[in-house]
């Protein structure tokens, strides 16, 4: 048969998945709804799918996704990336029409939708004080980033990140898991990214706010609130 670059990519993916299948930790396969393909490996150790849906939606590819998911036994969670109120409304329609039970709605900054973020993402004092949190959350936010801590992202080429918006830690083919974790603990910018900088460090609500998220990195802002300008 003819050997193609695609064969090599599939082989690398199979090697990574086979290795991860030996580990008891939770593994989430993140992929676009446009590129979901059934896996031919027998994976049974804490795997799940996170299917990313961005707009505008290609109806043909969306319908193809439904057929593929019919034969998948992994737990599935949808990640809807929205940049406007109109897209949020469309997500509501999809959730109801296709009986989607597990999902997240993630705001996406486009460069010209700051108003959308101010209305739907930025926190007010009332938002902060009304958020349910435990005393453990309060103290944990002073030490670790609750969004990123303990997580690593492995790309199809083997590159490893603690957060995809930060510099990579290494490559799964060149480094052991222990080396990658040690690097993030010692020099990384994600697991221990907390609100210990201005203006948050001067705010009385410093540790009541959620841990810094990808949105702060993308918007190049230290805080996403209407309290400290």
General description of the model:
With 229 residues, this protein is an alpha/beta fold. It is 34% helix and 14% strand. Strand 6 (159-161) and strand 7 (170-171) form a beta hairpin. The longest helix has 17 residues, at 5-21. The chain is globular and about 55 Å long. The N and C termini lie far apart (62 Å).
Structural class: alpha/beta
Q: How many individual β-strands?
A: 7
Mass-distribution shape = globular
Largest β sheet strand count, sense and barrel closure: 4 strands, parallel
How large is the radius of gyration? 20 Å
Task: Report the order of strands and helices.
Answer: HEEHEHEHHHEEEHH
Strand % is 5-15%
Give a concise summary.
The protein has 229 residues and is of the alpha/beta class. It has helices at residues 5-21, 59-69, 85-97, 114-120, 125-130, 135-140, 177-187, 214-219; strands at residues 27-32, 47-53, 76-82, 103-107, 153-154, 159-161, 170-171. Mean pLDDT is 88; it is low at 1-6.
